């Protein structure tokens, strides 16, 4: 939110007082982060009444470039800036480098001053002598290039000899020396040098042109987890909490606290995947798993599967079992399975301590009153009640002596903060509801905002990773751990995974499931992981998709569904054997093949099947009655049509060419009932069109009948969640059932979960609704790839 109104005018006046030009000051105000930092720097430096422009520019640099891991030392640096002991950009950069290395540790001032050139004075005579030496060394080049000489390189040579010299004096002396050597600038000096095009040698005809420098993938592409710091670096300040009274909380671990943590973890990475057991996991959780489990695996660490079970009313054992099972299916192995409820006693005791320290109070406002007071930034009437009174009331809450809705425990944070998540968040509420895991021991339950960070700390999590909507909660997260003197994990947020033509909100998913718009949580049209698995999508493809997206903080991106489909095809193309299936059968009688005769032909399971590998082939019967797709026949032929038509030939895949000789029509003289054809046993004819087909396995017997379900996008719009009437956007044709498709006999023994490529049709998997009498197939994805053509 950009600073507006009266506050904006006051901030602009403050920035102008330190010597910023009007344009820079206004641009700064448009950036909330820089505005907050610069305002804090000016107050820390006690320069709210203004200063000269040189010091002001240094303050601006401090606000924008100061190392975050050393924020505790920023006031010290500002002392040096205000007193002009540090007065040049070079000294300031040296200070940043020094402080970045010491982080929040103490340091010796004499070492700091030596590193930053404090007290070092370089005279004009010394600079002049050095400039003369540099010009003498480069005289020939300067005379040749004249005013095209790179003055920056000359100044760099001066800085190398005198790093603490005044850069303005050095620039004046270099310019004067240039004039002394070259005289007045001429018109020729301002002419742009002509660029002569070098003739490229043509390679010999028999030589291949090879790109000698192919693009190398970045380190982050090779290892997306390289952006995360090591556990021993968790002494740096990652967050500043700005309070409305002007104070700033710089959250970091003290060395003693970090050493204690590292002793327990032995320096390993500890992460956690913390789903709430109130629904089925979706593809967004796949990204969270990839980051949480993936980071731990890449660093040789451990990842907890922790159920965030603080709301007993919404949680079910069904969801808990599903989550554990789907995590394993995704290929991840938890270090340990825990529940937030495992720590209910610890959380309660810490809440009592929070009250004792004056950072929490029992409140009697209704939810509506709390909402109203927070919107108006008003304190609760009970905010300043005596600590002893809150302790007594919180004990009453715990013993079940206070009704639901009559009291909550709230954290005493900052009701005037610019951050809504510092408005005295609720820590505990009364709920007379048994807990699925903890039973009926408790009648008060902690909130997410209270419990999440504390359990992270208790489990010694090194990296607490979550999606960007939790970024504004970071201040509350660190504030609570700070006031309780608990170890503070490294917090980092990444963008949510948003996929087109679906909804990812648990609330919306629960609505369409419970109201039967879809067939359960594992409906293949849903982006739940159970639905994707039932559709035939592999965990390998999902993880490849997530890895390809990367661990970004860009929260505006909507990932197209065809990008996921690209990774699905890439995987299934390698793993799904090919078979022949006809969805809409049209009967073809081959008149020159004896009725009752059946040939067993070899069909390839894989495109690159070797002739001597019998396992790469399966048998398909070929008889005088076969079936092709209705869509592969037309009464009128055309140049761009490769199907069958009267008088036209096509090749039957793995079999023979056939030529249409006659067509049997229904009484309406339009509907095609049957085709008569002749086959070419010699295979001398070479038609362009190739069709898939299925034959009668023996005289008078229908081919294997299977049910096929074709799935399309569940919603018509790319982002249905943003629509007011999102349910009206449901695609009514998202599921089409073909009850009687024909398949080759080789599919008869297919098992649930087996995946195949139906040639020319797509990839299909055996559904759990299959029975001994009839197989049911779900289409996973079509063969057509739009994403691969448009770029990966």
Automatic annotation (TrEMBL):
<dbReference type="InterPro" id="IPR007638">
    <property type="entry name" value="Gln-tRNA-synth_Ib_RNA-bd_2"/>
</dbReference>
<dbReference type="InterPro" id="IPR000924">
    <property type="entry name" value="Glu/Gln-tRNA-synth"/>
</dbReference>
<dbReference type="GO" id="GO:0004819">
    <property type="term" value="F:glutamine-tRNA ligase activity"/>
</dbReference>
<dbReference type="InterPro" id="IPR049437">
    <property type="entry name" value="tRNA-synt_1c_C2"/>
</dbReference>
<dbReference type="InterPro" id="IPR020059">
    <property type="entry name" value="Glu/Gln-tRNA-synth_Ib_codon-bd"/>
</dbReference>
<dbReference type="GO" id="GO:0006425">
    <property type="term" value="P:glutaminyl-tRNA aminoacylation"/>
</dbReference>
<feature type="domain" description="Glutaminyl-tRNA synthetase class Ib non-specific RNA-binding">
    <location>
        <begin position="171"/>
        <end position="246"/>
    </location>
</feature>
<dbReference type="InterPro" id="IPR004514">
    <property type="entry name" value="Gln-tRNA-synth"/>
</dbReference>
<feature type="domain" description="Glutamyl/glutaminyl-tRNA synthetase class Ib anti-codon binding">
    <location>
        <begin position="576"/>
        <end position="680"/>
    </location>
</feature>
<dbReference type="InterPro" id="IPR020058">
    <property type="entry name" value="Glu/Gln-tRNA-synth_Ib_cat-dom"/>
</dbReference>
<dbReference type="GO" id="GO:0048608">
    <property type="term" value="P:reproductive structure development"/>
</dbReference>
<dbReference type="InterPro" id="IPR007639">
    <property type="entry name" value="Gln-tRNA-synth_Ib_RNA-bd_N"/>
</dbReference>
<keyword id="KW-0067">ATP-binding</keyword>
<dbReference type="Pfam" id="PF00749">
    <property type="entry name" value="tRNA-synt_1c"/>
</dbReference>
<dbReference type="InterPro" id="IPR042559">
    <property type="entry name" value="Gln-tRNA-synth_Ib_RNA-bd_N_2"/>
</dbReference>
<feature type="region of interest" description="Disordered">
    <location>
        <begin position="185"/>
        <end position="223"/>
    </location>
</feature>
<feature type="domain" description="Glutamyl/glutaminyl-tRNA synthetase class Ib catalytic">
    <location>
        <begin position="268"/>
        <end position="573"/>
    </location>
</feature>
<dbReference type="Pfam" id="PF04557">
    <property type="entry name" value="tRNA_synt_1c_R2"/>
</dbReference>
<keyword id="KW-0030">Aminoacyl-tRNA synthetase</keyword>
<dbReference type="InterPro" id="IPR011035">
    <property type="entry name" value="Ribosomal_bL25/Gln-tRNA_synth"/>
</dbReference>
<dbReference type="InterPro" id="IPR020056">
    <property type="entry name" value="Rbsml_bL25/Gln-tRNA_synth_N"/>
</dbReference>
<dbReference type="GO" id="GO:0009791">
    <property type="term" value="P:post-embryonic development"/>
</dbReference>
<dbReference type="InterPro" id="IPR001412">
    <property type="entry name" value="aa-tRNA-synth_I_CS"/>
</dbReference>
<dbReference type="GO" id="GO:0005524">
    <property type="term" value="F:ATP binding"/>
</dbReference>
<keyword id="KW-0436">Ligase</keyword>
<comment type="similarity">
    <text>Belongs to the class-I aminoacyl-tRNA synthetase family.</text>
</comment>
<feature type="domain" description="tRNA synthetases class I (E and Q) anti-codon binding">
    <location>
        <begin position="690"/>
        <end position="767"/>
    </location>
</feature>
<protein>
    <recommendedName>
        <fullName>glutamine--tRNA ligase</fullName>
        <ecNumber>6.1.1.18</ecNumber>
    </recommendedName>
</protein>
<dbReference type="Pfam" id="PF03950">
    <property type="entry name" value="tRNA-synt_1c_C"/>
</dbReference>
<feature type="domain" description="Glutaminyl-tRNA synthetase class Ib non-specific RNA-binding">
    <location>
        <begin position="10"/>
        <end position="167"/>
    </location>
</feature>
<keyword id="KW-0547">Nucleotide-binding</keyword>
<dbReference type="InterPro" id="IPR050132">
    <property type="entry name" value="Gln/Glu-tRNA_Ligase"/>
</dbReference>
<dbReference type="InterPro" id="IPR042558">
    <property type="entry name" value="Gln-tRNA-synth_Ib_RNA-bd_N_1"/>
</dbReference>
<dbReference type="Pfam" id="PF20974">
    <property type="entry name" value="tRNA-synt_1c_C2"/>
</dbReference>
<dbReference type="GO" id="GO:0005829">
    <property type="term" value="C:cytosol"/>
</dbReference>
<dbReference type="InterPro" id="IPR014729">
    <property type="entry name" value="Rossmann-like_a/b/a_fold"/>
</dbReference>
<keyword id="KW-0648">Protein biosynthesis</keyword>
<dbReference type="Pfam" id="PF04558">
    <property type="entry name" value="tRNA_synt_1c_R1"/>
</dbReference>
């Amino acid at each position: 939110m950009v600073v507006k109104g009266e506050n904006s005018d006051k901030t602009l006046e403050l920035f102008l007082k330190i010597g910023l030009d009007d344009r820079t000051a206004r641009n700064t105000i448009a950036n909330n982060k820089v505005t907050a930092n610069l305002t804090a720097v000016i107050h820390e430096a006690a320069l709210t009444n203004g200063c000269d422009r040189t010091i002001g520019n240094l303050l601006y640099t401090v606000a924008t470039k100061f190392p975050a891991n050393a924020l505790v030392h920023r006031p010290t640096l500002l002392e040096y800036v205000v007193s002009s002991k540090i007065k040049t950009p070079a000294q300031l950069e040296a200070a940043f480098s020094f402080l970045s290395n010491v982080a929040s540790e103490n340091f010796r001032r004499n070492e700091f001053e030596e590193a930053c050139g404090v007290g070092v004075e370089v005279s004009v005579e010394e600079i002049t002598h050095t400039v003369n030496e540099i010009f003498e060394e480069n005289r020939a080049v300067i005379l040749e290039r004249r005013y095209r000489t790179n003055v920056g390189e000359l100044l760099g040579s001066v800085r190398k000899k005198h790093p603490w010299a005044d850069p303005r004096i050095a620039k004046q002396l270099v310019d004067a020396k240039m004039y002394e050597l070259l005289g007045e600038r001429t018109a020729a000096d301002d002419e742009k040098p002509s660029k002569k095009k070098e003739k490229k040698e043509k390679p010999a005809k028999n030589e291949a042109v090879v790109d000698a420098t192919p693009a190398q993938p970045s380190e982050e592409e090779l290892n997306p987890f390289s952006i995360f710091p090591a556990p021993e670096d968790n002494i740096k300040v990652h967050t500043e909490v700005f309070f409305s009274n002007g104070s700033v909380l710089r959250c970091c671990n003290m060395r003693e606290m970090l050493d204690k943590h590292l002793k327990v973890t032995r320096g390993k990475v500890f992460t956690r995947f913390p789903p709430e057991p109130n629904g089925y996991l979706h593809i967004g959780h796949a990204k969270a798993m990839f980051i949480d489990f993936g980071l731990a695996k890449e660093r040789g660490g451990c990842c907890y599967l922790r159920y965030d079970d603080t709301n007993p009313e919404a949680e079910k054992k069904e969801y808990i079992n599903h989550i554990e099972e789907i995590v394993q299916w995704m290929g991840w192995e938890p270090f340990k399975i825990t529940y937030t409820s495992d720590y209910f006693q610890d959380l309660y005791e810490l809440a009592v301590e929070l009250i004792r320290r004056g950072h929490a109070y029992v409140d009697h406002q209704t939810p509506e009153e709390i909402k109203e007071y927070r919107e108006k930034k008003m304190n609760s009437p009970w905010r300043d009640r005596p600590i002893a009174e809150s302790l007594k009331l919180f004990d009453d809450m715990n013993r079940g002596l206070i009704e639901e809705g009559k009291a909550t425990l709230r954290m005493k944070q900052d009701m005037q903060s610019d951050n809504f998540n510092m408005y005295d968040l609720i820590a505990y509420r009364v709920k007379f509801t048994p807990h699925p895991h903890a039973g009926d021991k408790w009648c008060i339950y902690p909130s997410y905002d209270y419990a999440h960070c504390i359990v992270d700390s208790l489990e010694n999590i090194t990296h607490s990773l979550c999606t960007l909507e939790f970024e504004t909660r970071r201040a509350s997260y660190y504030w609570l751990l700070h006031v309780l003197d608990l170890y503070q994990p490294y917090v980092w947020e990444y963008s949510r995974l948003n996929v087109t033509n679906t909804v990812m909100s648990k609330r919306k998913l629960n609505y369409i499931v419970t109201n039967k718009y879809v067939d359960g949580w594992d409906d293949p049209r849903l982006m739940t992981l159970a639905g994707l698995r039932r559709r035939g999508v592999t965990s390998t493809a999902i993880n490849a998709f997530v890895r390809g997206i990367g661990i970004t903080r860009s929260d505006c991106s909507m990932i197209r569904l065809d990008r996921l489909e690209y990774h699905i095809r890439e995987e299934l193309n390698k793993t799904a054997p090919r078979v022949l299936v006809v969805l809409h059968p049209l009967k073809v009688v081959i008149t020159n093949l004896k009725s009752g005769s059946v040939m067993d032909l070899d069909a390839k399971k894989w495109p690159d099947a070797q002739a001597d590998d019998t396992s790469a082939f399966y048998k398909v019967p070929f008889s005088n009655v076969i079936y092709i797709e209705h869509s592969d026949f037309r009464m009128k032929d055309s140049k761009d049509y490769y199907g069958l038509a009267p008088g036209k030939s096509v090749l039957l895949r793995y079999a023979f060419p056939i030529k249409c000789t006659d067509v049997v029509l229904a009484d309406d003289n339009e509907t095609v009932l049957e085709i008569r054809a002749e086959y070419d046993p010699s295979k001398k004819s070479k038609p362009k069109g190739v069709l898939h087909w299925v034959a009668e396995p023996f005289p008078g017997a229908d081919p294997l009948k299977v049910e096929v379900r074709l799935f399309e996008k569940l919603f018509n719009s790319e982002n249905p969640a943003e629509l007011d009437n999102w349910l009206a956007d449901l695609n009514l044709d998202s599921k089409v059932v073909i009850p009687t498709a024909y398949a080759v006999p080789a599919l008869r023994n297919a098992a649930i979960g087996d995946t195949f490529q139906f040639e020319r049709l797509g990839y299909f998997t055996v559904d759990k609704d299959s029975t001994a009498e009839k197989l049911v197939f779900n289409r996973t994805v079509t063969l057509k790839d739009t994403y691969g053509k448009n770029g990966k």
